[in-house]
Amino acid sequence: MRPGGGRHGSNGRLGRFTALVAASLAASLAPAVVADAAVEHAPTSVLPPSITGTPKPGEMLTASPGVWTEEPASFTYRWETCFPTGACLPRQDSSDSAYVVQPSDAEHQLRLQITASNAIGSGTATSSPLDVERSWHYATGPPRMETVSWSTPGLKPPWATGKALAIGVSSGACGDEERPRIGDVQVQERGPSTALPFPSAVITVSILFPAPTEVVGTVNPGEIGPGCAGVGIGLGRTIKLKRPASPLYIFDGSTTPPRLVVRPDPILHWSLKRVRGPRKIEILVPFHGCLPLFVHAHVVERRGRAVVTAYGERPLYPSRTCSRGHDVQHLTLKLNAPVDNLELLDGSFDPPRPWRAP
Question: Which of 23, 32, 151, 278 ranks highest by number of CB atoms within 10 Å?
């Protein structure tokens, strides 16, 4: 090896190494320079967005963002309903490119406004409007059963005779073919107790409403098929009881706890008006305050004595059935034994007191 040859060889290798490092660094910086140059401006629309799909209520539309410059990083889709006045109402703002046409869009126009964004800024573009078709199909679901109150204001109070109790229920009014009906009636009867000295009945009524009918789109009057509209249909039901309907505590089971509707008044005094036959008498039952809904009396005959007990049943709800004042009701009672052979007692006293003519 010549003197000094090693030094010149080292310098040559160092020069080649420096050139390789410079070339590698330039290659790594080149894409960054190009990328920065590509996003120097906010996106601009070259080809406007478009909408594909059937413009009809219930159908899904899909948006195409169109063509943009400046490589957008994200898109925001704004669906709008436009009216003949030129005003447009925003329907949906999201990153979702799909939209389901709503019934209220019928006979209007739909358009799409897209916002494209990148690191520099954003730009907007609007599609051509689409005319939404008119539609009037019916979306129906299953019928529904709903527990309702049968003791609301405006209804007649329950009416009882023997072991039958008649009630009225108010529900939504529907077309002639699709009107609601009483679907289920539950009756829970109980005998006298310490809290309730007379038998009681909790009555729960459910209404079966027809399948709902929904008009999709805009229709002319007369084009709508049978469906619910308005209120006021009255439904009635006669309920068979195991026990006599009077005296009886009657509850409406649509509330928790059940609401007391009819309450037997305390035992009422009576007086004999006349004997109407060998085995028939007519009595007078006076009362005052809130007039009872029903006044009843029954006779227990034993060992030459006839204990006559009178009851009054007062409706608690609705309150307008309660008219305050004084009144007297006449009741005719049948006896098993001849009147002349019986001692009449008033069962409103404990013990019963013999009735004495004034």
Answer: 151
Predicted TM-score of the model (pTM): 0.46
Task: Give the Cα separation of 246 and 199 in Å (integer).
Answer: 9
Q: Do the Cβ atoms of 300 and 258 come closer than 8 Å?
A: no
Bridge partners for 333 per DSSP: 281
What 3-state class would DSSP assign to 23?
helix
Question: Tokens for 91?
Answer: 């329907």
The alpha carbon of residue 206 and the mean position of all alpha carbons in its chain are separated, in whole angstroms, by 14
Nearest to 68 by CA among 91, 47, 40: 47
Task: Count Cβ neighbours within 10 Å for each residue of 172-190 and write b for 16 or more, e otherwise.
Answer: bebeeebbbebeebeeeee
Between CA 197 and CA 318, with CA 293 as vertex, the angle to 5 degrees is 100
Question: What tokens does 90 get?
Answer: 């925003």
Q: What share of the chain is helix, strand, coil (3-state, %, to 5)?
A: 10, 50, 40
C-alpha distances (whole Å) from 332 to each of 127, 172, 271, 273, 293 are: 87, 42, 12, 10, 18
Cβ–Cβ < 8 Å for 231, 209: no
pLDDT one digit per residue (tens) for the chain, 358 residues = 444 444 445 555 545 555 554 555 444 444 443 444 567 888 999 999 999 998 887 788 999 999 999 889 999 998 988 887 778 888 877 778 888 888 777 778 889 999 999 988 899 999 998 888 765 545 566 777 888 888 765 555 666 667 888 887 766 544 444 567 788 889 999 988 888 878 899 999 888 877 665 555 444 433 333 344 434 456 778 888 888 777 788 899 988 899 888 888 777 888 888 888 899 999 988 876 666 667 878 888 988 899 998 888 776 654 444 555 567 888 899 999 998 888 899 888 888 888 765 4
**Can you list the positions of beta strands (E) in 33-131?**
45-47, 50-52, 60-64, 67-68, 74-82, 88-94, 98-100, 109-117, 122-126, 130-131
Task: Report in angstroms the alpha-carbon separations of 188 from 54, 150, 166, 193, 244.
Answer: 56, 16, 16, 15, 14
Q: Positive or negative, the Cα torsion across 73, 42, 46, 129?
A: positive
